[in-house]
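In response to reviewer comment 3 from the previous cycle, which asked for concrete evidence that the modeling workflow produces usable outputs, we include below a single protein chain processed end to end. The sequence was submitted unchanged, and the resulting structure tokens are shown without manual editing.
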Amino acid sequence: MLQEIVQSMLTPINLIMMNIGLAAGIIIGALPGLNVIFAIAVLLPFTFDLDSLAGMYLLLGAYCGATYGGSISAILINTPGTPSACATIFDGYPLAQKGRAGDALRAALVGSTFGGILSCFALMFFAPMIAKIALKITSPEYFALCVFGLTAVIGLSEKNVIKGLLMGMFGLFLSTVGIDSQEGVQRFMFGNMQLLGGFKVAVVMLGAFALSEVISKSREVYRGETGNANIAKFGKSTIKLKDILKYWKTMIKSSLFGIIIGAIPGTGGAITAMFSYNEARRSSKNPEKFGNGSIEGVLAPETGNNAVTGATLIPLLTLGIPGDACVAVLLGALTMQGITPGISLFSSNSIWVYAIMGGLLLINVFMLLQGHLFIRGFVNIIKVPVIIMLPCIVVLCSVGSFAISNVMFDVFVMAAFGLIGYAAKKLDFPIAPLPIGLVLGNLTETNLRRSLMISGGNPLIFFTRPISAVILAVSFISLLMPYIRKMIDKKKAAKAQAQV
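The workflow returned the following structure tokens.
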């Protein structure tokens, strides 16, 4: 059986499809606004005349490639290529500004590969078990997970917690705009039908991060403060693999986050990246380095969001339930090929299933090779003079915003949030809490209300369920951790002075 699986995987057409999918996915993921779903949807028509295995390899390559590709623009131009790269900005771009763009890109590549491979092994060996655990996670547990993610707002706002909380609350408010998922009523739309679906995360992030940076840099150019300087200093990668792997604990924890959260239907890479970043910062020996250019701060979200890629296939292959919107497109591709996902697939077509799993593992290895080969080309982007780069970023952001739903309204929303982001920077408000609130807002509200409906309005439901209670306890501890650390540091300093 093993020989048949290997033979079916390693045919020339399958290997070619894996690499074409990867290359297309990385390019699309690196372009602001063109997300993972777009990458898979664009390649879907090419699978019609392909064998089911080759077609799936093409789409899985695009899935993994686009998930990793989002980190490239996040690091180089402070613009998340995909929503799952939103947390990579926090330390990736500061590293690029210090001339360490190559190091940040290599860390993102190694973390992405590590998370992807670990999730492949989880898919191979623990798929049915993880699927059963994922089914036990219901509304109270979802809400607790969201609360844990929202505690990242505190961690990212140590310099000014109040302003950070206000930005986080602004993000939560933005998530309520549109049709209420429970009652079906319009909220905060002010008669504008374009807001029926609410604010799109990718559009808001393009404005708040990318366009605000363009406005800031343009002002500097106009005032003659930067001239023809580059957006960030050029620097090729000097970091070694051993320097990255010393953060193995962070990478394993982030991978576990990605595997568990990715296996839960309805979640995704953006949420996992936030959780992974928050946990890495909370448990780090040097949390003050986060947000100022920490390799660990790049590794954590990139490992976590790529660990989702294999995990989302767990409910798909074992239960026939797509883990997220990207995998829903994959489900459509499977049904077009006459394959019905579910637990019976393991017995009726086991060679095909394990060939898919093995192929996904091989795709992650190819991703490491492709990323390593082209990393020098990625770094060269920041050698472009700022007066050329800034208009290009504006065009990319505008095209990306329009491409999401093919409406000009999203371009205007992006422009508005560019101004909001610029004003926030000028007033010393951190921007990072905004996407956290927006990404988690709808999931938090929906599961809070659903849980209270189940319990008849009794909030004790969150504390009587073991998983939910543990997650909320960890969230509370993580909120207090920065203050506990400060107290410990003060005591250490006082002891050191006393000894002197």
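Confidence is low (pLDDT under 50) at residues 227-231. We consider this sufficient to address the reviewer's concern, and the full set will be provided in the supplementary archive.
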